[in-house]
From TrEMBL, chain A:
Alphabetically ordered keywords of this record: Membrane, Transmembrane, Transmembrane helix
Gene Ontology cellular-component annotations: cell division site; membrane
GO terms of biological process kind: cell division
Name under which the protein is recorded: Cell division ABC transporter subunit FtsX
InterPro entries from the UniProt entry: FtsX
TM helices/strands, residue ranges: 30-54, 176-199, 235-253, 273-295
From TrEMBL, chain B:
Keyword Lipid metabolism among UniProt keywords: no
Gene3D superfamilies per the UniProt record, alphabetical: P-loop containing nucleotide triphosphate hydrolases
Protein name: Cell division ATP-binding protein FtsE
GO BP terms in the entry: cell division
Domain of life: Bacteria
Alphabetically ordered keywords of this record: ATP-binding, Cell cycle, Cell division, Nucleotide-binding
InterPro entries assigned to the protein according to its UniProt record, in alphabetical order: AAA+_ATPase (IPR003593), ABC_transporter-like_ATP-bd (IPR003439), ABC_transporter-like_CS (IPR017871), ABC_transpr_LolD-like (IPR015854), P-loop_NTPase (IPR027417)
Single Gene Ontology MF annotation: transmembrane transporter activity
Naturally occurring in which organism (per UniProt): Pseudogemmobacter humi
């Protein structure tokens, strides 16, 4: 199998040529800083990921609940019921933002009440309010204005748009998800910056080594490889530990479903649990490209 | 082996570090298999000349060609490949201090991805008299040992040219003669040799063994010195 050129290059840069690695002296405790940074960043990333996924679930659940319907409950003396119902329907027909409206039939009323009072309820004889289902258009109607017009037309009509309060919440959840993704991007960028700094420091500290390597005929890719390999492996290992710690952290969070279901629980569900395992290779890739870029541009300072 | 008429050629080349030209109008050719000395007072530009000869520096005027390649047109990778064909012993010999002597001597092979033959390495270390020190770390070596290790490293790739900058800089006369003998042997094997030195005794000694020519830097120019010396 033949790899495409950039991939083959990447593979060559990572290939376990122990000798290539040995030409740069081991860097002692500073090596830990890269692993630690990658670990801490990945730990944070797991939470940002969990936050994004959880708020995403929340946002979509709440948006689904916003079925864009409201109910008007009309109480009126029996002899006026029909007239007021028609008046309200006429009013709704001219209200901007209302897509459609219709009065529930007696059958539907009975179906609604059946669970409480049994199927053979004599709906017609009870002084039940008439229900009018309003389907909202996009953009929606002005709730306050509609209430006032209803009051003028039918004093016994009550507009119940209980699902409307959830809209800002659904929007907030969507924003939260966006912030989560943004955090992940920032964490990744910060890690790239940290690795670049560390790689540059390492190259500067090993200037003498680099000079000798150039003098004996090493090309830039050879020299870069020693550094790239090192930082990639360190970032990968650190990120592995960080991801594991983050996952454990998420798993021991108390379940919040019981607490009113307001928070769906900061966690992963189903295949989402696999996502944190993508973070270590991702961190390795970030370190790979950051170090490679840093090394190849720094090496130009040496002839 | 190189087939052309010149291994390294300077054509009206000049070099200027920024404070006026240090070397001017340098025109010369190193023919394959030749042996040259380069002398001149301290600070006259011997090291600078060698750096031009292995493309560490680019001439600020004129042309330098190595194996018929104009140095100015070389990419970084080409410079790297060229250095594998030119063995250099630097005036300030530098090693990778964390690797043992043997690994340092093999470094040119390592970085060019070539397999090294343990027996060849043993022979080479034997030849420079360092076989017993193959596991020693460079900082523990004496000046003369470092010079010989540098020479071994310079020749391990079987280069066509060997440029040596004060290879006897900090060794006693006996060791100087030994290093000279190594260089003469290399020349007899067909290598082109250029040795920068201010040690006139060494040059006289060499002239007894090989038809060496002497280049002298004086007043920014490089000239072929007369037979008198
Ligand atoms: N990187 C540099 N920048 C500026 N000036 C330099 C640089 N390298 C060398 N020089 C100057 O160039 C002149 C020649 O230096 P060079 O090292 O070539 O002399 P040399 O003949 O090898 O001397 P020595 O016999 O002491 O080794 C010196 O005056 C030196 O100070
Ligand atoms: Mg010098």
């Amino acid at each position: 199998m033949k790899l495409p050129k950039p991939l083959a290059r990447a593979a060559a840069l990572l290939s376990s040529d122990a000798r290539a690695d040995r030409v740069v002296p081991p860097s002692g405790h500073t090596a830990w800083l890269t692993s630690f940074t990658a670990g801490a960043m990945t730990f944070l990333c797991v939470f940002a990921l969990a936050l994004s996924l959880a708020s995403g679930r929340l946002a979509s659940r709440w948006s689904d609940a916003l079925a864009r319907t409201a109910t008007i409950r009309l109480s009126a003396p029996p002899e006026q019921m029909q007239a007021q119902t028609e008046a309200i329907l006429a009013l709704l027909a001219t209200t901007p933002g209302v897509e459609s409206a219709r009065a529930l039939t007696d059958e539907e009323n009975r179906a609604l009440l059946a669970p409480w009072f049994g199927a053979d309820l004599p709906v017609e004889e009870l002084p039940l309010p008439r229900l009018i289902e309003v389907t909202e258009a996009d953009p929606g109607y002005d709730g306050e204005g509609l209430r006032q017009r209803l009051a003028a037309e039918a004093p016994g009509a009550v507009l119940d748009d209980h699902t409307r309060w959830r809209r800002p919440l659904a929007e907030a959840a969507g924003r939260l998800r966006l912030l989560g993704w943004l955090s992940i991007v920032l964490i990744g960028t910060a890690m790239a910056a940290m690795v670049t700094l560390a790689a540059n420091a390492s190259l500067a500290a090993n200037a003498q080594v680099v000079r000798v390597l150039r003098l004996v005929g090493a090309d830039d890719h050879y020299i870069a490889r020693a550094f790239v390999r090192r930082f990639t492996l360190r970032a990968f290992a650190g990120a592995g530990a960080g991801a594991l710690a983050g996952l454990i952290g998420i798993m021991i969070l108390p379940r919040t479903d019981a607490a009113g279901g307001f928070l769906t629980g900061l966690g992963f569900s189903g295949a989402g649990w696999l996502l944190p395992f993508l973070l270590p290779p991702l961190a390795g890739a970030v370190a790979f490209f950051a170090t490679r870029h840093a090394a190849l541009s720094k090496l130009r300072e040496f002839r | 082996m190189h087939g052309g008429e010149r291994v390294i050629a300077f054509e009206n080349a000049a070099y200027n570090y920024g404070g006026g030209e240090l070397l001017s109008e340098v025109s010369l050719r190193l023919a394959p298999g030749s042996f040259h000395f380069l002398t001149g007072p301290s600070g006259s530009g011997k090291t600078t000349f060698l750096k031009l000869a292995y493309a560490e520096l680019l001439p600020t005027a004129g042309h330098v060609t190595i194996f018929d390649r104009e140095v100015r047109g070389l990419s970084r990778d080409e410079v790297a490949r060229l250095r594998r064909r030119v063995g250099v012993v630097h005036q300030d010999v530098q090693f990778l201090d964390h690797l043992p002597l043997a690994a340092n001597v093999q470094l040119p092979l390592t970085v060019s991805g070539r397999k090294s033959d343990a027996r060849d390495l043993g022979d080479l270390l034997q030849w420079v008299g360092l076989a017993h020190l193959s596991d020693a770390l460079p900082p523990s070596l004496s000046g003369g040992e470092r010079q010989r290790a540098a020479l071994a490293r310079a020749v391990i790739m079987g280069p066509d040219v060997i440029l040596a900058d004060e290879p006897t800089g900090n060794v006693d006369w006996e060791m100087s003669l030994r290093l000279l003998t190594l260089l003469v042997e290399l020349n007899r094997m067909g290598k082109t040799i250029l040795v920068a030195t201010h040690d006139l005794n060494l040059i006289r000694q060499a002239k007894n063994q090989v038809p060496a020519r002497v280049l002298r830097i004086s007043r920014r120019r490089i000239q072929l010195a007369g037979a008198d010396l």
